[in-house]
What we know:
By secondary structure, the first copy, chain A, is of the alpha/beta class. The first copy, chain A, has helices spanning about 5-10, 30-35, 40-45, 50-60, 75-80, 100-105, 110-115, 115-130, 145-150, 160-170, 170-195, 210-215, 220-230, 250-255, 270-275, 295-310, 330-349; strands at about 65-70, 85, 90-95, 135-140, 200, 240, 260-265, 280-285, 315-320. Chain A has a single domain, classed as Alpha-Beta Barrel (TIM Barrel), CATH 3.20.20. Chain A contains 17 helices and nine strands.
Amino acid sequence: MNDRFLKACRREPVDCTPVWLMRQAGRYMSEYRAIRERYGFLQMVKTPEVATEITLQPINAFAVDAAIIFADILPLLEGMGLQLTYEKGEGPIIHNPLRAPDDIRALRVTDSRESVAYTIEAVRLTKRELADKIPLIGFSGAPFTLASYAIEGGGSREYRLTKKLMYTHPDTWQTLMTKLVDQISDYLLAQVEAGADALQIFDSWAGALAPGDYAEYVLPYVQQVIANVKTRQLRTVPLIYFGTDMSGMYNILRQTGADVLGVDWRIFLDDAWAQIGPGSAVQGNLDPMVLFAPWPAIERRAADILDRAAGRPGHIFNLGHGILTETPVEHVQRLVEFVHSYSADQATR
Amino acid sequence: MNDRFLKACRREPVDCTPVWLMRQAGRYMSEYRAIRERYGFLQMVKTPEVATEITLQPINAFAVDAAIIFADILPLLEGMGLQLTYEKGEGPIIHNPLRAPDDIRALRVTDSRESVAYTIEAVRLTKRELADKIPLIGFSGAPFTLASYAIEGGGSREYRLTKKLMYTHPDTWQTLMTKLVDQISDYLLAQVEAGADALQIFDSWAGALAPGDYAEYVLPYVQQVIANVKTRQLRTVPLIYFGTDMSGMYNILRQTGADVLGVDWRIFLDDAWAQIGPGSAVQGNLDPMVLFAPWPAIERRAADILDRAAGRPGHIFNLGHGILTETPVEHVQRLVEFVHSYSADQATR
């Protein structure tokens, strides 16, 4: 197996810097759009053969060093009792959002092998198809990010209801977060059982919080998820914790227990790594919008990131957030090749 | 005059920490809503007597240490040639956004005393009404934030068109930013002439950029605005530079030349100040959503911010972004009193 990615997660030396791109199986690829014409978004997620095919599309097109299962963070909430749809152009909508303590008490924690069996099966199928060529990443939403979707009923800018609940009913918050910890831990462990070689926890919205509030209301639950997985997993798989807008709290994120911390593009990679300390690997941190620039502008920025990570094992090149629709495919291909060749030269310098 | 705010801007000792709140004249106040029922938003901005009355509403209600002129950052673009409306529930729309180099060449730089005469007159009227009780802050949008509205045609999440222009046509970008620098500098100077005691530059969206891109495409123009004002102003007024999502680049923002840097809530105030260094005052940094919490939760967070700023002159207490609609008025009043009393006790400890 090409284990460059797994080695970097463990901060071991590599021949060149591994690279994959968040949301690499996505709408910027014509192969993806061709399937999307025939299926609804959740239908693609819930049909293991389709999810497997989509997962493999970027692997066939680019020399990326990891696959990530094509799935979505929100269907996990359906098993807990929430009604989810994706409306065209509107993103996810939860039709019975959590608004009262009773709603939260009524949430169920399920066996993920049943409630999200389709994703577990997609992991199994994809592992077989990959034939150990490159590692497969499984993932889940983090407790805060799932809680905010469940409470707001969809995307949000201000997280009014989520923060109000957190500040006003700390006991109810704890109940909700504890249920999510149990559900997420189970889901991640089921993906390891099915063959996932690494896990990423997406806390995309936790950067909306002040660091003190993050430390008090979110960090303990992230720590529990990571500790649960580390204690109970059958094989040792690295855990990546990813959020955006967290440049002011990397010194807190180092306490999550994650092997790798994702870094968005709003901070220089070496500044983030200095805050994180030597105990974690880092993943990032190119602004996804840069891929719309002419190639020399992309190359200059990718090289700068690699230079800032040089001389220290444990960097996985990635974008600072998911790849955007309409991203030029030829730039993706060139970026992946550039990361490999430039970093291989760095190693011999 | 109560010059606590101006002293803190200059990092001089004060009897207690000065406090004002971004967007303190706003919809959370019933007095504001009563006027808003009779006028459109831009009509309020463009009627000096109304803008003056609104500016004074929070001054009459709370013991804040500064007034900020009721105005908007976008009408400055109208004089330059852009067509602006505010649509109900949609925010600002620019009907002829900048999409081609010719659009940018056609932009005019105007005399702000004519093109935004209403705000200059409102500053003059408000100064008279305030009778030197407390200082009056004038303000403008920053070059990047105004450019992004002008290019995107309104608010944005990804700043696709703005970043594309920046990466792809650096010369056109420079032309645009230079025109904005001239217009903004003139506008700020006109407000000083009319009596403004301090100035704030709002760069609310510059945190969407990677620090390297900020340093290359934005910082030089912020520096020019600040240098222009400092060189040409009639009286020496302090300059505040404010952005959000900039926790990863305070060590760059210290190079702006601003006397005070605004700090949102996504970083501990002392961590931000350590990056900024001793040469600037700081303003912030309570999460506006905290004002929806029960009072003890507000008090604990306000005290934490004051503790983190203690023992060092140059802190102005504020929210980390504008106050939100529906914020409980009694919490605003109590917060202002608490900041004064708690920090007065700190000073004697």
